[in-house]
Structure prediction request, 303 residues.
Amino acid sequence: MAHLLRRVSEAAFVPRPRATERGRGDRRSSKGPSAIPWANGELEVLVRPTWIPGLSPDEQSSAPEAGLLLDLEWLGQGRGAQGRGRLLLRCRREQLAAAGLGEPCIGPPTLERGDEGRVVVAELELRYAGVVIHRDRAPLHGPALCEGIAALVLEGRLRPGLGERLEDELHLWALVEQEGEGPSLPVPSARAHLAERLRVLGLSELGELELLEPADLLPDVPARALARGIAPRALQALRDDFPRRFAFEGNLYDCQVELRARRVTLEAVRVKRGGGEPPVRVLPRFRGFAVEYIKASRRLRLR
Prediction:
């Protein structure tokens, strides 16, 4: 089985989530259970479960959790074509994982005390066609460690203050892409940017994070601004006129800026009881742009 999974991995299929339960609902039919969808991440086909006439549902063999479909046929043409799978060679999900199939997914990371100091630990899931084929909780290594550290930095649990600085610089970068000349580039999320920087710098253990300077991890927005024809003074004006967030009397607001539309949208991040839209007199300069406030899915025009 291991040899087949490595050589013809595209033939490995798993029942879609809850598909087995849907199939069981038809077991009272005299014709046996109906076909249920199986998938390999690219294709979805119908497979009719094994059904031995004369046996009660409890006496039927248990439904397979994975397998190799050795024969596929397609009925119809174009988008209306329907796939049918036959000649199922059963296997276990653990065998799919052992063969290197599936995409890793990392759960929320935590900091724990290990034999040699703090380590980043998370629940690791291996998913194949949307189905979990392996789950384990373990210390993170390699790219997964970079992802975990990035999440902890943005939560403020590692390098306090760095996550806020990164968010501010990415906000400014987005303004540069709107303001500058030529085609704009997509601005990555804070987590994606930080994880990529950690991978490029070759971080291999948590302790190495303290050796890095903020300049190693923050985007070089001034260089990007110059490349798009924005002088340092104009870049500073963007920073001053369009903050990412602003606070008033304990309330905190996100500022979404649309330079070309000359509009700023405020959304509450934290509002005290009885609080709501901020008074116009306390708004940042925003260069006189129109300002709207999102409240309970409604937009209120403030200026």
User: Anything to note?
Assistant: The chain has four domains: 2-95, 103-154, 162-240, 242-301.
